[in-house]
Specification:
single chain, alpha+beta, two-stranded antiparallel ribbon
Length: 290
């Protein structure tokens, strides 16, 4: 009887020691900080304060190694992803360069940031015919054919500069007066009534005023869909925005105010400038040779 009690006591002590040992180990494990593996990646940050509307150069950027969790999803680890682009928001020194703060050439930036230096964007109103029936796409190249009516025939002739001595104004030849057979210029001029001038010949003609112009943007009408959301309508554009030089912009605006135009669509790989004169009333019969 005593022996069995001793065995029970010994077993109880052993179990208590085992329980105490495992409890001690458990508490020690709780006290230990878990080992965390930190992954570092490169990210481009601003080396200086970069104002808005500033073209980014290599000296404005540097690459830092930051924990992966601290790197913004809209950033990059390659400096070349930002070089040459323009900021649309100010960037503070040490701040990660985010693509949302840069005017990239992905078509999402404002149109003004997509215009190259020394170039202009001019909007041209279009319809079903002049807008090429909705086949235009952004990035296409087009020619502009313009028809002028009631213009002077002399406007088609390129003036030839008269030779003059150095320091002397250029001499200009008076335009000959049209005469009847046997009539001199003096008598023809006398036949005109006082204050009456000889009426200049007027023509209608078509010229290819511009070639290989790039389409920057298409204007489309908005409409409200069944869900009540305002969305853009696709199809025939109401206007086309063309990329031109400042000199071409003046001619283009004059064309819009004085003539009627038609676009012709080019092959994207064809950038050949064809030397063309014009076609109109004065050379109408030449159409057989075209």
């Amino acid at each position: 009887m005593k022996q069995s009690r001793i065995i029970i006591i010994v077993l109880a002590i052993v179990l208590a020691l085992i329980t105490t040992f495992f409890l001690y180990r458990y508490i020690e494990d709780l006290r230990k900080e878990p080992e965390v593996t930190v992954v570092y990646n490169d990210v481009v940050v601003a080396a200086v304060n970069v104002p808005v509307n500033t073209e980014i150069t290599a000296g404005m950027l540097r690459v830092e190694s930051l924990p992966q969790e601290a790197i913004h999803a809209n950033s990059s680890g390659d400096i070349n992803d930002f070089l040459g682009y323009t900021t649309v928001m100010p960037i503070t020194e040490g701040e990660q360069i985010l693509k949302s703060k840069i005017a990239l050439d992905d078509g999402r930036s404002a149109l003004s940031y997509q215009i190259p230096e020394n170039m202009r964007a001019v909007v041209v109103p279009t319809g079903e015919v002049s807008g090429l029936a909705g086949y235009l796409q952004i990035g296409d190249k087009v020619d502009l054919l313009v028809t002028y009516s009631g213009r002077s025939a002399q406007e088609l002739e390129e003036p030839e500069p008269a030779e003059s001595e150095p320091g002397e104004p250029e001499a200009t030849e008076p335009e000959p007066v049209e005469t009847e057979p046997g009539e001199t210029e003096e008598t023809a001029a006398e036949d005109l009534e006082p204050g009456e001038e000889e009426e200049a010949e007027t023509l209608s003609y078509t010229i290819t005023q511009f070639q290989n112009l790039e389409v920057l943007e298409l204007g489309v009408s908005d409409y409200v869909n069944a869900e009540g959301n305002v969305v853009k309508a696709y199809g025939v554009p109401t206007s086309v925005t063309l990329l031109v030089s400042p000199e071409q912009a003046e001619v283009l605006v004059f064309m819009l105010n004085t003539g009627t135009f038609q676009m012709s669509l080019r092959n994207p790989t064809d950038d050949t400038i064809v030397p063309l004169d014009h076609f109109g009333d004065d050379n109408f019969t030449d159409w057989r040779n075209r």
